[in-house]
């Protein structure tokens, strides 16, 4: 959707295989980098993944360079429904800490 509504973003081929590949779009002139990736555990669904492809979002954020103009949008929740609330709370707190470190 974003690529179809913003003509300055260019999709990058990351040479991955599988149904849920990482997605990357960039606009070098405006210094915009948009990426999407599947989340870490818990995974619920019929698809199988290589263990090498799965990582926690907090770790991805920790590797990301940022600053005052950095924007991060994260969608959480749906796959956590069948798990104890403690699992969701722990993951959310880890992501919160990673975002705080990124924006300092």
Tell me what the structure shows:
The protein is an alpha+beta fold and 104 residues long. It has two domains: 1-37, no CATH class; 49-104, no CATH class. Helix content is 28%, strand content 12%. The chain has a three-stranded antiparallel β-sheet with strand order 1-2-3, with no helix packed on it. Strand 2 (23-27) and strand 3 (32-36) form a beta hairpin. The radius of gyration is 15 Å and the shape is globular. 4% of the residues are buried. The model has no long low-confidence stretch (mean pLDDT 77). This is Protein FAM55D. Pfam families: NXPE4_C. Residues 5-103 form the NXPE C-terminal domain.
List segments where confidence is low: pLDDT < 50 over at least 5 consecutive residues. none
Strand content: 5-15%
Biggest sheet architecture = 3 strands, antiparallel
Counting DSSP E segments of at least 2 residues, the number of strands comes to 3
Q: Which sequence of SSEs, written as H and E, runs from N to C?
A: HEEEHH
What percent of the residues sit in helical stretches (DSSP H or I)?
25-40%
Number of helices: 3
Side by side, the strands of the main sheet go 1-2-3
What's the structural domain tally?
A: 2
Ends distance: 31 Å
Class computed from helices, strands and strand pairing: alpha+beta
Anisotropy-based shape: globular
Radius of gyration over alpha carbons? 15 Å
Mean pLDDT metric? 77
Organism: Neovison vison
Domain NXPE C-terminal: 5-103
Pfam family, one: NXPE4_C
Protein name: Protein FAM55D
């Amino acid at each position: 959707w974003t690529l179809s509504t913003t003509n300055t973003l260019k999709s990058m081929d990351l040479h991955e295989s599988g149904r849920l590949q990482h997605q990357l779009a960039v606009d070098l002139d405006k210094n915009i980098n948009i990426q999407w990736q599947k989340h870490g555990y818990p995974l619920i669904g019929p698809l199988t993944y290589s263990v090498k492809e799965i990582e926690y979002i907090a770790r991805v954020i920790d590797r990301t360079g940022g600053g005052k103009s950095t924007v991060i949008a994260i969608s959480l929740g749906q796959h956590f429904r069948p798990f104890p609330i403690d699992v969701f709370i722990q993951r959310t707190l880890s992501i919160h800490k990673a975002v705080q470190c990124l924006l300092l």
